[in-house]
């Protein structure tokens, strides 16, 4: 999760988020190089000694500063496309979770396991325990196994919501009448927090998402406990 003074991306907990961070750093590096070069050029204009005041054309420099930016853009475009298709790839998921956005809470269904279903509401500030995170913790967490491919199906019952977890690199809109799909792989245990990120109404800020990533045997135990009850 994000903590105080964290202005960058959150620590990644999935291979896809790792790739997204690599791409962000790559694009930022190119951006910095361009900014420094253009900044230097603009600064040097202040000290122009007018030695080239009879210069009317320069075919070579025109060629260079047309083609070079195009090539630089390709260096961003190709990794971007690679990532775009990588994010959409589904690799034989072992668990499927369906999440439905409502005004203003999420509900979940484990369709593989006798359709275990529950609602997940934010814990209001006045009911928060000392170890809880304000505006971020929920009453019923999603429990998912780590080190396995997980498919997420996202939809909504009323208006558009967005199921977003920054540390996993997941952001999918839940749209009424449509079923969107994505997948991820959590590579460590822990709690992963997310929030709705489509402006869905008055309590848009108060429908967080919490994933409890656990080892597979714990997940099986959790599933069988819920099947019995
Ligand atoms: Cu649901 Cu914003």
Automatic annotation (TrEMBL):
Domain (Cytochrome oxidase subunit II transmembrane region profile) ranges: 1-91
Gene3D superfamilies given in the database record: 1.10.287.90, Cupredoxins - blue copper proteins
Topology of the protein relative to the lipid bilayer: Multi-pass membrane protein
InterPro entries: CcO_II (IPR045187), CcO_II-like_C (IPR002429), CcO_II_C (IPR034210), Copper_CuA (IPR001505), Cupredoxin (IPR008972), Cyt_c_oxidase_su2 (IPR014222), Cyt_c_oxidase_su2_TM_dom (IPR011759), Cyt_c_oxidase_su2_TM_sf (IPR036257)
Keywords for the protein's UniProt record, in alphabetical order: Copper, Electron transport, Magnesium, Membrane, Metal-binding, Mitochondrion, Mitochondrion inner membrane, Respiratory chain, Translocase, Transmembrane, Transmembrane helix, Transport
Catalytic activity: 4 Fe(II)-[cytochrome c] + O2 + 8 H(+)(in) = 4 Fe(III)-[cytochrome c] + 2 H2O + 4 H(+)(out)
Note on cofactor: Binds a copper A center.
Coiled coil segments of this chain: none
Cofactor(s) the record lists: Cu cation
Record PROSITE patterns: COX2, COX2_CUA, COX2_TM
One protein family per Pfam: COX2
Domain spans labelled Cytochrome oxidase subunit II copper A binding: 92-225
Function of the protein: Component of the cytochrome c oxidase, the last enzyme in the mitochondrial electron transport chain which drives oxidative phosphorylation. The respiratory chain contains 3 multisubunit complexes succinate dehydrogenase (complex II, CII), ubiquinol-cytochrome c oxidoreductase (cytochrome b-c1 complex, complex III, CIII) and cytochrome c oxidase (complex IV, CIV), that cooperate to transfer electrons derived from NADH and succinate to molecular oxygen, creating an electrochemical gradient over the inner membrane that drives transmembrane transport and the ATP synthase.
UniProt subunit comment: Component of the cytochrome c oxidase (complex IV, CIV), a multisubunit enzyme composed of a catalytic core of 3 subunits and several supernumerary subunits. The complex exists as a monomer or a dimer and forms supercomplexes (SCs) in the inner mitochondrial membrane with ubiquinol-cytochrome c oxidoreductase (cytochrome b-c1 complex, complex III, CIII).
Protein's recorded name: Cytochrome c oxidase subunit 2
């Amino acid at each position: 999760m994000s903590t105080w003074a964290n202005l960058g991306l959150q620590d990644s907990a999935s291979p896809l988020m790792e790739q997204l961070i690599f791409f962000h750093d790559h694009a930022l590096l190119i951006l910095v190089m361009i900014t420094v070069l253009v900044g230097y050029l603009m600064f040097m204009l202040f000290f122009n000694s007018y030695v080239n005041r009879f210069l009317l054309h320069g075919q070579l420099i025109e060629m260079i500063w047309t083609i070079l930016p195009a090539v630089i853009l390709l260096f961003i475009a190709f990794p971007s496309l690679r990532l775009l298709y990588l994010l959409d790839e589904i690799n034989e998921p072992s668990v499927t979770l369906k999440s439905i956005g409502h005004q203003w809470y999420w509900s979940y269904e484990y369709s593989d396991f006798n359709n275990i279903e529950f609602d997940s509401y934010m814990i209001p500030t006045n009911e928060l325990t000392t170890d809880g995170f304000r505006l971020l913790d929920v009453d019923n967490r999603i429990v998912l196994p780590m080190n396995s491919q997980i498919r997420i199906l996202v939809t909504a019952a009323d208006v558009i919501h967005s199921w977003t977890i920054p540390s996993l690199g997941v952001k999918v809109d839940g749209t009424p009448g449509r079923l969107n799909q994505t997948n991820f792989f959590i590579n460590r245990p822990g709690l992963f927090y997310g929030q709705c990120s489509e402006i869905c109404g008055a309590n848009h800020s108060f429908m967080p998402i919490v994933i409890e990533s656990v080892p597979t045997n714990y997940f099986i135990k959790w599933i069988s406990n819920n099947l019995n009850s």
